[in-house]
Amino acid sequence: MANQRVTLTFDADTSKAKASINELYTTLERLSSMNINNAPGKLLTKDIQEASLAATQLKHSLESAVNVNTGKLDLNKFNSSLQ
Fold it and tell me: 3-state SS of the chain: helix, strand, coil percent to 5?
């Protein structure tokens, strides 16, 4: 069978994905900036402390996967940082 070359071009509306990523980043920013060690009157469980640490790590992964020149998220880099 002969080799065939096919070119596929498409446009995608990524506005919902961008909005979701921005919302995730904002939430991670709030979670990671909370001072969990000095929360008055609240006993924090180990699970909450681990969740806060995970949120901070996810925020850093997201930040490092964004190309600062284009403002675009590199999903391959983001995925690699999560593994």
Answer: 60, 5, 35
3-state SS assignment for residue 73: strand
pLDDT at 73 over 70: yes
Residue type, 57: Q
Residue 38 has pLDDT above 80, yes or no: no
Given a contact cutoff of 8 angstroms between Cβ atoms, the answer to whether 59 and 27 are in contact is: no
Rounded to whole angstroms, the Cα distance separating 76 from 59 reads: 16
Domain boundaries, the chain: 45-83
The per-residue pLDDT for range 51-67, each reduced to its tens digit, is 878 888 888 888 888 88
CA 43 to chain centre: 28
> Which of the 8 DSSP states describes residue 69?
T
Mean pLDDT of the chain: 78
